[in-house]
Protein backbone atom coordinates (compact mmCIF):
# COMPACT_ATOMS: atom_id res chain seq x y z
CA UNK A 1 0.00 0.00 0.00
CA UNK A 2 1.32 3.45 -0.89
CA UNK A 3 2.33 5.72 1.97
CA UNK A 4 -0.31 8.46 2.06
CA UNK A 5 2.11 10.66 3.97
CA UNK A 6 4.61 10.74 1.16
CA UNK A 7 4.20 13.72 -1.15
CA UNK A 8 4.90 13.53 -4.85
CA UNK A 9 7.85 15.87 -5.56
CA UNK A 10 5.99 17.22 -8.62
CA UNK A 11 2.82 17.95 -6.62
CA UNK A 12 2.18 21.56 -5.74
CA UNK A 13 2.69 22.56 -2.12
CA UNK A 14 2.24 25.94 -0.46
CA UNK A 15 5.42 25.23 1.51
CA UNK A 16 7.49 24.51 -1.61
CA UNK A 17 10.20 26.96 -2.63
CA UNK A 18 9.66 28.21 -6.20
CA UNK A 19 12.04 26.46 -8.57
CA UNK A 20 13.25 28.92 -11.21
CA UNK A 21 15.98 26.62 -12.54
CA UNK A 22 14.31 26.67 -15.96
CA UNK A 23 15.81 30.17 -16.37
CA UNK A 24 19.12 28.46 -17.03
CA UNK A 25 19.75 28.41 -20.75
CA UNK A 26 18.72 25.10 -22.29
CA UNK A 27 20.73 23.59 -25.19
CA UNK A 28 17.59 23.46 -27.34
CA UNK A 29 16.18 26.78 -26.08
CA UNK A 30 19.05 29.27 -25.57
CA UNK A 31 16.68 32.23 -25.16
CA UNK A 32 14.77 30.80 -22.19
CA UNK A 33 16.58 32.90 -19.58
CA UNK A 34 16.41 36.07 -21.65
CA UNK A 35 12.67 35.77 -22.27
CA UNK A 36 11.90 35.11 -18.62
CA UNK A 37 13.96 37.99 -17.30
CA UNK A 38 12.64 40.41 -19.91
CA UNK A 39 9.11 39.53 -18.83
CA UNK A 40 9.95 40.22 -15.19
CA UNK A 41 11.75 43.43 -16.11
CA UNK A 42 8.72 44.60 -18.10
CA UNK A 43 6.50 43.90 -15.09
CA UNK A 44 8.79 45.87 -12.76
CA UNK A 45 9.08 48.86 -15.09
CA UNK A 46 5.83 50.50 -13.83
CA UNK A 47 7.12 50.02 -10.30
CA UNK A 48 10.24 52.03 -11.08
CA UNK A 49 8.19 54.83 -12.63
CA UNK A 50 5.85 54.95 -9.64
CA UNK A 51 8.77 55.13 -7.23
CA UNK A 52 10.33 57.94 -9.26
CA UNK A 53 7.08 59.85 -9.01
CA UNK A 54 7.02 59.17 -5.27
CA UNK A 55 10.57 60.49 -4.88
CA UNK A 56 9.76 63.63 -6.87
CA UNK A 57 6.74 64.32 -4.66
CA UNK A 58 8.88 64.15 -1.53
CA UNK A 59 10.91 67.15 -2.64
CA UNK A 60 7.93 69.40 -1.99
CA UNK A 61 7.24 70.16 1.66
CA UNK A 62 8.62 71.68 4.86
CA UNK A 63 10.71 68.72 5.94
CA UNK A 64 14.36 69.22 6.87
CA UNK A 65 16.64 68.83 3.85
CA UNK A 66 18.58 66.00 5.43
CA UNK A 67 15.37 64.03 6.02
CA UNK A 68 14.17 64.60 2.45
CA UNK A 69 17.55 63.54 1.08
CA UNK A 70 17.60 60.43 3.26
CA UNK A 71 14.06 59.45 2.26
CA UNK A 72 14.74 60.00 -1.45
CA UNK A 73 17.92 57.94 -1.14
CA UNK A 74 16.03 55.12 0.53
CA UNK A 75 13.32 55.19 -2.16
CA UNK A 76 15.96 55.10 -4.91
CA UNK A 77 17.75 52.18 -3.24
CA UNK A 78 14.41 50.44 -2.85
CA UNK A 79 13.64 50.79 -6.57
CA UNK A 80 17.07 49.54 -7.62
CA UNK A 81 16.82 46.71 -5.10
CA UNK A 82 13.45 45.58 -6.48
CA UNK A 83 14.88 45.45 -10.01
CA UNK A 84 18.00 43.57 -8.92
CA UNK A 85 16.00 41.14 -6.77
CA UNK A 86 13.66 40.34 -9.65
CA UNK A 87 16.67 39.78 -11.93
CA UNK A 88 19.00 37.82 -9.61
CA UNK A 89 16.71 36.49 -6.87
CA UNK A 90 15.33 33.42 -8.70
CA UNK A 91 18.84 31.95 -9.05
CA UNK A 92 19.78 32.65 -5.41
CA UNK A 93 19.82 30.09 -2.63
CA UNK A 94 17.08 30.01 0.01
CA UNK A 95 19.02 32.06 2.55
CA UNK A 96 19.87 34.61 -0.13
CA UNK A 97 16.21 34.92 -1.08
CA UNK A 98 15.19 35.55 2.52
CA UNK A 99 17.89 38.23 2.87
CA UNK A 100 16.77 39.93 -0.36
CA UNK A 101 13.12 40.09 0.73
CA UNK A 102 14.06 41.29 4.22
CA UNK A 103 16.29 44.07 2.85
CA UNK A 104 13.56 45.19 0.45
CA UNK A 105 11.03 45.36 3.27
CA UNK A 106 13.40 47.45 5.37
CA UNK A 107 14.08 49.84 2.47
CA UNK A 108 10.39 50.03 1.57
CA UNK A 109 9.13 50.58 5.14
CA UNK A 110 11.87 52.99 6.26
CA UNK A 111 10.40 56.09 4.49
CA UNK A 112 7.00 55.43 6.05
CA UNK A 113 8.57 55.23 9.52
CA UNK A 114 10.78 58.31 9.04
CA UNK A 115 7.87 60.37 7.70
CA UNK A 116 5.33 58.83 10.10
CA UNK A 117 3.11 58.27 7.07
CA UNK A 118 1.31 54.89 7.02
CA UNK A 119 0.20 55.56 3.43
CA UNK A 120 3.83 55.17 2.39
CA UNK A 121 3.52 51.46 3.26
CA UNK A 122 1.66 51.08 -0.04
CA UNK A 123 5.11 51.03 -1.69
CA UNK A 124 5.69 47.66 -0.03
CA UNK A 125 3.58 46.16 -2.82
CA UNK A 126 6.79 45.66 -4.84
CA UNK A 127 8.58 43.92 -1.97
CA UNK A 128 5.52 41.71 -1.49
CA UNK A 129 5.58 40.84 -5.20
CA UNK A 130 9.22 39.84 -4.92
CA UNK A 131 8.28 37.76 -1.90
CA UNK A 132 5.62 35.95 -3.94
CA UNK A 133 8.28 35.31 -6.55
CA UNK A 134 11.03 34.01 -4.27
CA UNK A 135 9.41 32.60 -1.12
CA UNK A 136 7.06 29.66 -0.52
CA UNK A 137 3.46 30.71 -1.14
CA UNK A 138 2.39 30.18 2.47
CA UNK A 139 5.13 32.47 3.83
CA UNK A 140 4.60 35.11 1.14
CA UNK A 141 0.84 35.25 1.81
CA UNK A 142 1.45 35.48 5.56
CA UNK A 143 3.89 38.32 4.96
CA UNK A 144 1.33 40.11 2.80
CA UNK A 145 -1.42 39.65 5.39
CA UNK A 146 0.80 41.09 8.14
CA UNK A 147 1.65 44.09 5.93
CA UNK A 148 -1.98 44.86 5.07
CA UNK A 149 -3.17 44.47 8.67
CA UNK A 150 -0.26 46.59 9.90
CA UNK A 151 -1.08 49.40 7.49
CA UNK A 152 -4.78 49.34 8.44
CA UNK A 153 -4.03 49.38 12.19
CA UNK A 154 -1.45 52.15 11.81
CA UNK A 155 -3.86 54.28 9.78
CA UNK A 156 -6.60 53.76 12.35
CA UNK A 157 -4.36 54.71 15.25
CA UNK A 158 -2.65 57.66 13.53
CA UNK A 159 -5.58 59.20 11.66
CA UNK A 160 -8.65 57.64 13.15
CA UNK A 161 -9.71 56.43 9.71
CA UNK A 162 -8.43 54.06 7.04
CA UNK A 163 -7.54 55.18 3.53
CA UNK A 164 -8.99 52.16 1.81
CA UNK A 165 -7.80 53.37 -1.58
CA UNK A 166 -4.19 53.04 -0.42
CA UNK A 167 -4.91 49.60 1.01
CA UNK A 168 -6.60 48.61 -2.25
CA UNK A 169 -3.58 49.73 -4.25
CA UNK A 170 -1.33 47.68 -1.97
CA UNK A 171 -3.43 44.55 -2.46
CA UNK A 172 -4.28 45.08 -6.14
CA UNK A 173 -0.81 45.87 -7.45
CA UNK A 174 0.68 43.04 -5.41
CA UNK A 175 -1.86 40.61 -6.85
CA UNK A 176 -1.25 41.87 -10.39
CA UNK A 177 2.54 41.57 -10.20
CA UNK A 178 2.26 38.22 -8.43
CA UNK A 179 0.02 36.96 -11.23
CA UNK A 180 2.56 38.05 -13.86
CA UNK A 181 5.32 36.24 -12.00
CA UNK A 182 3.15 33.13 -11.56
CA UNK A 183 2.31 33.05 -15.28
CA UNK A 184 5.97 33.46 -16.18
CA UNK A 185 6.82 30.70 -13.73
CA UNK A 186 4.20 28.34 -15.17
CA UNK A 187 5.08 29.07 -18.80
CA UNK A 188 8.76 28.54 -18.06
CA UNK A 189 8.10 25.16 -16.47
CA UNK A 190 5.88 24.13 -19.37
CA UNK A 191 8.61 25.04 -21.85
CA UNK A 192 11.18 23.14 -19.82
CA UNK A 193 8.87 20.11 -19.65
CA UNK A 194 8.28 20.26 -23.39
CA UNK A 195 12.03 20.37 -24.03
CA UNK A 196 12.52 17.39 -21.72
CA UNK A 197 9.79 15.44 -23.53
CA UNK A 198 11.59 16.11 -26.82
CA UNK A 199 14.88 14.87 -25.38
CA UNK A 200 13.23 11.76 -23.95
CA UNK A 201 11.52 11.04 -27.27
CA UNK A 202 14.86 11.21 -29.09
CA UNK A 203 16.47 8.98 -26.45
CA UNK A 204 13.62 6.46 -26.63
CA UNK A 205 13.82 6.35 -30.42
CA UNK A 206 17.58 5.72 -30.24
CA UNK A 207 17.01 2.90 -27.78
CA UNK A 208 14.32 1.41 -30.04
CA UNK A 209 16.57 1.47 -33.10
CA UNK A 210 19.52 0.05 -31.13
CA UNK A 211 17.37 -2.74 -29.67
CA UNK A 212 15.82 -3.63 -33.02
CA UNK A 213 19.16 -3.52 -34.83
CA UNK A 214 20.60 -5.87 -32.23
CA UNK A 215 17.68 -8.25 -32.64
CA UNK A 216 17.79 -8.14 -36.44
CA UNK A 217 21.51 -8.24 -37.12
CA UNK A 218 22.48 -10.40 -34.15
CA UNK A 219 20.33 -13.31 -35.25
CA UNK A 220 20.92 -12.89 -38.99
CA UNK A 221 24.69 -12.54 -38.74
CA UNK A 222 24.96 -15.46 -36.32
CA UNK A 223 23.01 -17.72 -38.71
CA UNK A 224 24.99 -16.49 -41.71
CA UNK A 225 28.26 -17.14 -39.90
CA UNK A 226 27.20 -20.72 -39.15
CA UNK A 227 26.13 -21.31 -42.76
CA UNK A 228 29.33 -19.83 -44.14
CA UNK A 229 31.37 -22.08 -41.88
CA UNK A 230 29.35 -25.09 -42.96
CA UNK A 231 29.81 -24.29 -46.68
CA UNK A 232 33.54 -23.80 -46.19
CA UNK A 233 33.93 -27.11 -44.36
CA UNK A 234 31.93 -28.93 -47.03
CA UNK A 235 34.07 -27.51 -49.82
CA UNK A 236 37.30 -28.28 -47.95
CA UNK A 237 36.40 -31.83 -46.95
CA UNK A 238 34.07 -33.48 -49.45
CA UNK A 239 33.89 -30.96 -52.25
CA UNK A 240 30.09 -31.32 -52.40
CA UNK A 241 29.56 -28.29 -54.61
CA UNK A 242 25.75 -28.60 -54.95
CA UNK A 243 25.32 -28.67 -51.16
CA UNK A 244 27.66 -25.68 -50.76
CA UNK A 245 25.82 -23.79 -53.50
CA UNK A 246 22.51 -24.47 -51.74
CA UNK A 247 23.88 -23.09 -48.47
CA UNK A 248 25.28 -20.01 -50.22
CA UNK A 249 21.94 -19.46 -51.96
CA UNK A 250 20.22 -19.50 -48.56
CA UNK A 251 22.84 -17.06 -47.34
CA UNK A 252 22.00 -14.69 -50.17
CA UNK A 253 18.32 -14.89 -49.29
CA UNK A 254 19.07 -14.25 -45.63
CA UNK A 255 21.25 -11.26 -46.49
CA UNK A 256 18.46 -9.73 -48.57
CA UNK A 257 15.96 -10.35 -45.76
CA UNK A 258 18.30 -8.81 -43.18
CA UNK A 259 18.77 -5.76 -45.37
CA UNK A 260 15.00 -5.34 -45.69
CA UNK A 261 14.61 -5.79 -41.93
CA UNK A 262 17.20 -3.09 -41.26
CA UNK A 263 15.44 -0.64 -43.55
CA UNK A 264 12.07 -1.44 -42.00
CA UNK A 265 13.52 -1.12 -38.50
CA UNK A 266 14.85 2.36 -39.17
CA UNK A 267 11.45 3.33 -40.56
CA UNK A 268 9.59 1.61 -37.67
CA UNK A 269 7.55 -0.43 -40.15
CA UNK A 270 9.00 -3.80 -39.31
CA UNK A 271 6.70 -6.53 -38.01
CA UNK A 272 7.74 -9.91 -36.76
CA UNK A 273 5.89 -13.24 -36.74
CA UNK A 274 6.33 -16.06 -34.27
CA UNK A 275 5.80 -18.64 -37.03
CA UNK A 276 8.45 -17.09 -39.25
CA UNK A 277 10.90 -16.93 -36.36
CA UNK A 278 10.32 -20.61 -35.59
CA UNK A 279 10.98 -21.42 -39.25
CA UNK A 280 14.15 -19.35 -39.18
CA UNK A 281 15.23 -20.99 -35.94
CA UNK A 282 14.74 -24.44 -37.45
CA UNK A 283 16.97 -23.52 -40.41
CA UNK A 284 19.66 -21.89 -38.27
CA UNK A 285 19.81 -24.77 -35.78
CA UNK A 286 19.94 -27.33 -38.59
CA UNK A 287 22.86 -25.50 -40.21
CA UNK A 288 24.70 -25.48 -36.86
CA UNK A 289 24.12 -29.18 -36.31
CA UNK A 290 21.79 -28.65 -33.36
CA UNK A 291 18.73 -30.84 -33.15
CA UNK A 292 15.57 -28.75 -32.85
CA UNK A 293 12.30 -29.68 -31.19
CA UNK A 294 9.86 -26.96 -32.19
CA UNK A 295 6.06 -26.72 -31.95
CA UNK A 296 4.23 -27.78 -35.08
CA UNK A 297 1.75 -24.91 -34.74
CA UNK A 298 1.29 -21.78 -32.66
CA UNK A 299 -2.47 -21.40 -32.93
CA UNK A 300 -2.89 -21.53 -29.17
CA UNK A 301 -0.64 -18.50 -28.60
CA UNK A 302 -2.61 -15.32 -28.04
CA UNK A 303 -2.45 -13.00 -31.03
CA UNK A 304 -1.25 -9.97 -29.09
CA UNK A 305 1.76 -11.92 -27.76
CA UNK A 306 2.98 -13.54 -30.98
CA UNK A 307 5.20 -10.66 -32.04
CA UNK A 308 7.00 -10.26 -28.70
CA UNK A 309 7.33 -14.06 -28.39
CA UNK A 310 8.90 -14.04 -31.85
CA UNK A 311 11.58 -11.71 -30.48
CA UNK A 312 12.10 -14.08 -27.55
CA UNK A 313 12.59 -17.10 -29.85
CA UNK A 314 14.94 -15.14 -32.08
CA UNK A 315 17.16 -13.92 -29.25
CA UNK A 316 17.19 -17.24 -27.36
CA UNK A 317 18.11 -19.26 -30.48
CA UNK A 318 20.79 -16.70 -31.34
CA UNK A 319 22.30 -17.17 -27.88
CA UNK A 320 22.27 -20.94 -28.39
CA UNK A 321 24.20 -20.51 -31.63
CA UNK A 322 26.68 -17.98 -30.27
CA UNK A 323 27.20 -18.86 -26.63
CA UNK A 324 26.47 -22.56 -26.22
CA UNK A 325 27.75 -25.97 -27.27
CA UNK A 326 24.25 -27.43 -27.16
CA UNK A 327 23.20 -30.44 -29.20
CA UNK A 328 19.46 -30.03 -28.57
CA UNK A 329 17.24 -26.94 -28.48
CA UNK A 330 13.59 -27.20 -27.47
CA UNK A 331 10.91 -24.57 -27.91
CA UNK A 332 7.52 -24.91 -26.20
CA UNK A 333 4.63 -22.48 -26.37
CA UNK A 334 1.40 -21.84 -24.51
CA UNK A 335 -1.37 -19.26 -24.70
CA UNK A 336 0.63 -16.74 -22.69
CA UNK A 337 4.12 -18.20 -22.40
CA UNK A 338 7.04 -19.48 -24.45
CA UNK A 339 10.02 -21.46 -23.21
CA UNK A 340 13.34 -22.16 -24.94
CA UNK A 341 15.76 -24.66 -23.40
CA UNK A 342 19.01 -26.26 -24.54
CA UNK A 343 21.30 -28.93 -23.14
CA UNK A 344 24.56 -27.06 -23.63
CA UNK A 345 26.90 -25.21 -21.35
CA UNK A 346 26.87 -21.44 -21.81
CA UNK A 347 30.34 -20.30 -22.80
CA UNK A 348 29.74 -16.72 -21.71
CA UNK A 349 28.08 -17.39 -18.34
CA UNK A 350 24.49 -16.61 -17.51
CA UNK A 351 24.79 -12.83 -17.16
CA UNK A 352 22.08 -10.91 -19.00
CA UNK A 353 23.45 -9.09 -22.03
CA UNK A 354 21.95 -6.44 -24.28
CA UNK A 355 19.70 -8.98 -25.99
CA UNK A 356 18.07 -10.34 -22.84
CA UNK A 357 17.81 -6.83 -21.41
CA UNK A 358 16.03 -5.69 -24.55
CA UNK A 359 13.66 -8.66 -24.32
CA UNK A 360 12.81 -7.77 -20.74
CA UNK A 361 11.96 -4.22 -21.89
CA UNK A 362 9.76 -5.53 -24.73
CA UNK A 363 7.88 -7.83 -22.38
CA UNK A 364 7.49 -5.11 -19.77
CA UNK A 365 5.78 -3.01 -22.46
CA UNK A 366 3.04 -5.68 -22.68
CA UNK A 367 2.97 -6.32 -18.90
CA UNK A 368 4.97 -9.53 -19.31
CA UNK A 369 8.04 -10.97 -17.58
CA UNK A 370 11.23 -12.71 -18.63
CA UNK A 371 13.06 -15.40 -16.67
CA UNK A 372 16.38 -16.93 -17.68
CA UNK A 373 18.98 -19.12 -16.03
CA UNK A 374 20.27 -22.69 -15.77
CA UNK A 375 17.71 -25.38 -16.52
CA UNK A 376 17.05 -27.99 -13.79
CA UNK A 377 18.42 -30.88 -15.88
CA UNK A 378 21.39 -28.92 -17.21
CA UNK A 379 21.69 -26.39 -19.97
CA UNK A 380 20.03 -23.02 -20.16
CA UNK A 381 16.39 -21.92 -20.16
CA UNK A 382 14.63 -18.74 -21.20
CA UNK A 383 10.96 -18.32 -20.26
CA UNK A 384 8.73 -15.43 -21.28
CA UNK A 385 5.27 -14.94 -19.82
CA UNK A 386 2.62 -12.49 -20.91
CA UNK A 387 -0.19 -11.14 -18.74
CA UNK A 388 -2.69 -13.77 -17.66
CA UNK A 389 -5.71 -13.96 -20.00
CA UNK A 390 -9.04 -12.77 -18.70
CA UNK A 391 -11.48 -15.55 -17.84
CA UNK A 392 -11.26 -19.10 -16.64
CA UNK A 393 -8.07 -20.95 -17.57
CA UNK A 394 -7.82 -24.49 -18.82
CA UNK A 395 -5.66 -26.96 -16.86
CA UNK A 396 -2.96 -26.68 -19.52
CA UNK A 397 -2.94 -22.86 -19.32
CA UNK A 398 -2.77 -22.97 -15.55
CA UNK A 399 0.17 -25.36 -15.65
CA UNK A 400 2.37 -23.18 -17.89
CA UNK A 401 6.05 -24.00 -18.43
CA UNK A 402 7.55 -26.34 -15.87
Automatic annotation (TrEMBL):
It holds the Pfam family HisKA_3. Residues 1-32, 369-402 are annotated as: Disordered. Residues 205-271 form the Signal transduction histidine kinase subgroup 3 dimerisation and phosphoacceptor domain. Residues 1-10 have a biased composition (Basic and acidic residues). The keyword Transmembrane helix applies. SUPFAM superfamilies: ATPase domain of HSP90 chaperone/DNA topoisomerase II/histidine kinase. This is Histidine kinase. It comes from Streptomyces catenulae.
